[in-house]
């Protein structure tokens, strides 16, 4: 989010749209790959919507073409898009992976989450103090 704000202040909107479109293509493809992997590894799991595997495989073929074409035509934009994605890695390790955080870090994360929920008008029942289960 911070990197996007800096890019919006420094660069033009067209470049930002290019960064975001590359990130979207990448995330959509990884999601479809995950769908195919889960269909092979866990075929018995309940799925409310089940499609023929030919559809996601066809989608992946077009996705690969778009991704390779994007990397070939604008490698700098794709590189910056990857850097924008990688800025989320420290947030993941700080918020999710690190299990035994000090209480002050947990309180900070909880207050930032609650503040963000209020800012974006998100209703979440545990805002204002987590209950022990």
From TrEMBL:
<feature type="transmembrane region" description="Helical">
    <location>
        <begin position="16"/>
        <end position="39"/>
    </location>
</feature>
<feature type="transmembrane region" description="Helical">
    <location>
        <begin position="79"/>
        <end position="98"/>
    </location>
</feature>
<keyword id="KW-0812">Transmembrane</keyword>
<protein>
    <submittedName>
        <fullName>AAA1 protein</fullName>
    </submittedName>
</protein>
<dbReference type="GO" id="GO:0042942">
    <property type="term" value="P:D-serine transmembrane transport"/>
</dbReference>
<dbReference type="InterPro" id="IPR050598">
    <property type="entry name" value="AminoAcid_Transporter"/>
</dbReference>
<dbReference type="GO" id="GO:0015179">
    <property type="term" value="F:L-amino acid transmembrane transporter activity"/>
</dbReference>
<keyword id="KW-0472">Membrane</keyword>
<dbReference type="GO" id="GO:0042941">
    <property type="term" value="P:D-alanine transmembrane transport"/>
</dbReference>
<feature type="transmembrane region" description="Helical">
    <location>
        <begin position="51"/>
        <end position="73"/>
    </location>
</feature>
<keyword id="KW-1133">Transmembrane helix</keyword>
<dbReference type="GO" id="GO:0015175">
    <property type="term" value="F:neutral L-amino acid transmembrane transporter activity"/>
</dbReference>
């Amino acid at each position: 989010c911070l990197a996007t704000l800096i890019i919006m202040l420094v660069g033009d909107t067209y470049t930002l749209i290019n960064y975001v479109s590359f990130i979207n293509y990448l995330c959509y493809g990884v999601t479809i790959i995950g769908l195919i992997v889960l269909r092979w590894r866990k075929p018995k799991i309940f799925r409310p919507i089940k499609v023929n595997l030919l559809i996601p495989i066809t989608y992946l073929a077009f996705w690969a073409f778009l991704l390779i074409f994007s990397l070939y035509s604008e490698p700098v934009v794709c590189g910056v898009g990857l850097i924008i994605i990688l800025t989320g890695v420290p947030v993941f390790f700080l918020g999710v992976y690190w299990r035994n955080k000090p209480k002050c870090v947990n309180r900070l994360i909880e207050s930032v989450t609650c503040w963000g929920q209020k800012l974006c008008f998100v209703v979440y029942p545990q805002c204002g103090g987590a209950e022990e289960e």
